[in-house]
Amino acid sequence: MKSDDPCSGRLGAVRAMKRKEKILMIPGPSELSSEVLNTMSRPLPAHYMDDWIPMYRETVDLTKKVLRTKNDTYIITGSGSAGMEAACAAIIEPGDKVIADVTGPDVFEPFVSVQGARVVPLEVMSGTAIDPENVRKLIKKEGNVKAVAVFHNVTSTGVTNPVDEIGKITAENNVLFLVDAISSVGGIPLEVDKWHIDICCVATQKAFSVPPGLALVSVGKSVWSAIKARKVPIHSEYLNLERYKEAASEPQGSWHPTPDTCNTLHVRALLQSLRDLVEEGVENSWNRHAKIAEAVRQGLRSVGLELLVKNPKYASNTVTAALWPKGYNYKKFWRAMFDEYNIMLGNPPIEGHFPGWFRIGHMGTTANIEYVLPTLAYVEMALRKAGYPVEPGRGVAAAQKVLFDWRVGSR
Hints:
CATH superfamily of the largest domain: Type I PLP-dependent aspartate aminotransferase-like (Major domain)
Structural class: alpha/beta
Number of domains: 2
Strand content: 5-15%
CATH architecture of the largest domain: 3-Layer(aba) Sandwich
CATH class of the largest domain: Alpha Beta
Largest sheet: 7 strands, mixed
Number of strands: 13
Helix content: 25-40%
Distance between the termini: 13 Å
Strand order of the largest sheet: 2-10-9-8-5-3-4
């Protein structure tokens, strides 16, 4: 029987704070659910023949259901970056003009550049979203643009870009649209077909709460047309989407649906996660993530911290970035969370790599009360250790106020 509490049920009681391993409140990889862990402890399945085919096909079908697409969808053994590289290798040829995001570490630009494209930079300030009208202007100004490649959710800054609006513009101009939705899928509204996304790349380690190691790529008809019209072959063997299409087709698809050996353990874990997600309801999951994100933002604001993303319309529901206040010891704060309270936050105090803000991930399993309220409590304690003045309980109370009367089915 399901509980009315949005954060009880399958996840069980709070055991995380007592364990030896770190609690991953980073924006991926996310904490694994007990269901996924149990699934992964079962004997290893083979990657072909009768026992495997139904499992594989159900995983693909449920992925398409979550992505809201009828497009061909493939599972690649590799990190999310493998999917991005496969997508770019499929449609981009030397000299093609591609508009790509270039600001920060979470960008398509290096994947586009390595294919020999002429990159048209789409620049934004950290903490701000892409303006769709800038995309429209660049398409008109440049002319003969083959593709636009952007991130839906920017994990490094906690920004969610208006991919739905950008998709309308690319469709109007017959420009291919590539989207990285790795840290949004399952936690933030995503409509691949409705938003005219030609290639969508996702992965398992964020809101799916499955270990890193699988990339999933949905491929629209326009992409296959672009591949057919290529002047030169795709410059990849392992990440060649034509090989994945061939393997999934008959006769091979009936017994060995991937071109190479895939990570069967992770596929089965993904299947469990997708079943749980569909049981919860994709829209319910989106709502859960939105409410948890609001609680985290309110909690951080209430202790006086400033958020990197100022416009709430573009604030991510899977990760929040908070600016570190000047004059206080960030290293002491982060190490207290990590060493004393057993909680890992994003952006460790590594010299030359700290951007000026820390990040809290709230995605999949960690987008639950039992994770975010203890995390906010320990954030308050760690802030005090760093010399920052905090009224105990203020942030937690603000988050509780957001969550108090909220009721949806739990994941």
